[in-house]
Amino acid sequence: MRAASVALARRALRNSFRKPQFLAPLVLFPTLFLAVNVGGLERTTSLEGFPAVDGFLDFQLAAAITQSLLLGGVSAGIAAALDIEGGFFDRLVASPTPRLAIVLGRVLAASVIAVLQVTYFLVLGAIFGASIKGGAFGVLCVLAIGIVAGTGFGALGVMIALRARNASTVQGIFPLVFVVLFASSAFFPADLLSAPADVIAVYNPLSYIADGMRQPIAFGNELGPLLKGLAAAAGVAVVATGLSVLALRGRLRQA
Amino acid sequence: MSALRQDLRTIGALMRRGLNEILRVPGGALPGVLAPTIFMLGLSAAFGEAAQLPGFSADDFRTFIVPVGLLQGAGFTGAATGVNLARDIEHGWFDRLMLAPAKRPVLLAGVVGSACLRSLLPATFLLIVAFALGVSWPGVGALVLGALLIMGFAAAVACFATVLALRFRTQQAAPLMQVGSFIVIFFTTAYAPRELLSDWLRALADANPVTHVLEGMRQGYVGDVTWATTWPALLAVTALVTLFGTLAVRGMSRQGY
Questions:
Q1: Quick one: chain B helix, strand, coil %, rounded to 5?
Q2: How far is CA B66 from CA A99, B56, B71, B212, B234, in A?
Q3: Do B41 and A42 touch (CB under 8 A)?
Q4: Would you give the end-to-end CA distance of chain A in angstroms?
Q5: DSSP states along A107-140
Q6: Per-residue pLDDT tens digits for A206-237
Q7: Which of A169, A170, A182 to mutate to test the interface with B (most CBs of B within 10 A)?
């Protein structure tokens, strides 16, 4: 199964890199959003209750990474849906490929792309003056949380694709990415969010994922937020992968 | 039948076709209608405290951000017009349209006209939600001016997206169309008054004509409607429509039929 998963992941990655126009929005939109947020709201760091940071860019970098990873999940879902629409999925099912590898291959590809997304934003941040307070270990922590979260979001996208079976429906969840992000502490400190986002943010795993990545970037390597971030990312990954396997079984039953 | 009446009938038919899509494929139009409202609610929930900054010109952030959502809806609609045109090109419908005995600018007017009308849909939805949540009534004058600017901006973005659709002839150019409208809307005074922007964003906002459109839209929500803010908004939107309309007509004329 491992060989099949790796082969399918390689195929997914090859397809992604052959069509960079599908990959570019994963970093382009969050980069623009990051620029606008930082340029327009940098003075909010002086608000009472805002944690002490060197700059708003330091604070917003984790939000941009989280947003990019979520868009990566949508992209993985669209790619899986296109496989279903184009008949590749049916041919795969008819072959002696292990069923689980169909999901794992796509999820593995999402995690590889997550490495590139996190790296891109860390480099971008460094270029524009953000400092990683946690140093090399902090960078590794951001990468670890980002990769696990990216894997989970990829699995979520695949699950939606298996249920929806068409790319346009998966594309339709794009606005939902912003709904779940705005209802978290990804963009602004939880204590300064307006109701009801402040309440939802407490139960939203994205808050912990974003805060977990923000901790080593803006504040330093404090273990609590890092572990919470990693646990939230792992929770999303495990649940989402499980749901996509269930969705695959449902799809195979109908086939 | 006079040539003018024939042109108007053609424009009307193309506009009806564009509007029919909303009824026949409501699922396709839904994200474009919902997204600006989601952004408005999300941005105000996340960044609402920014209104407490000294020098912020509105009492609450939601009121300040409503005009941004209105322009964003117009931008989405304009970009969607380009995506639909690219789809028509891919499916061959555009080829048949080009064989019709109608002038290219007339065909463009029909496509862009439908974008103008469709842009009022996300705006209406957003305003209903905003007023229900307590955003203050801006007055009839501000609403009429807002509708004009929304339709004008949608027309400009539709022309821009048409240029891209004719150039790339594929729906895969959709992100380019969307990013274009995103950039011109957000690199303005979208998030904060000019004085509170960082230096680089203030310089960009000053050079961006859409800042004038946004400030024109913001009248009634923040401050009163004044001619001093209205005429630059009307001038900017007219210039944008003229510029991208000219490029789109040129693109249509270059189609090899």
A1: 80, 0, 20
A2: 48, 15, 9, 16, 19
A3: no
A4: 22
A5: HHHHHHHHHHHHHHHHHHHHHTT---TTHHHHHH
A6: 999 999 999 999 998 889 999 999 999 999 99
A7: A182
DSSP B102-141: S-HHHHHHHHHHHHHHHTHHHHHHHHHHHHHTTPPP--HH
Tokens 């760091």 sit at which residue?
A45
Residue B238 vs residues A201, B150, B153, B245: alpha-carbon distances, Å: 43, 12, 9, 10
Q: How far apart are CA A107 and CA A157, in angstroms?
A: 9
Q: Which pLDDT tens digit goes with each residue over A9-57?
A: 899 899 888 877 668 888 988 999 999 999 988 889 988 889 988 889 9
Residue B46 touches partner A, C-beta closer than 8 Å:
yes
**SS3 of A92-113:** HHHCCCCHHHHHHHHHHHHHHH
Contact B160, B76 (CB under 8 A): no
Alpha-carbon span B225 to A67, nearest angstrom: 37
Q: What is the mean pLDDT of each run of 10 residues along chain B (257 residues)?
A: 85 87 73 86 89 84 93 92 86 85 88 93 96 93 96 96 89 79 90 91 95 95 93 97 95 77
Of B35, B46, B192, the CB nearest to A193: B46
The tokens describing A119, both together, are: 């790296």
Q: Which residues of B touch A21 (CB under 8 A)?
A: 172-173, 175
* Amino acid, res. B40: M
- A88 token code pair: 């590749």
d(CA B79, CA B98): 21
pTM score over 0.90: no
Q: Do residues A133 and A220 touch, judged by C-beta distance below 8 A?
A: yes
**Pairwise CA distance, residues B45 & A57, whole Å:** 20
Q: Cβ contact (<8 Å) for B179 and A28? A: yes
- The CA distance from B175 to the nearest CA of chain A, in Å, is 7
Helices marked H in chain A: 2-18, 20-41, 56-86, 88-94, 99-127, 135-164, 167-171, 174-182, 197-203, 205-214, 223-254
Residue type, A22: F
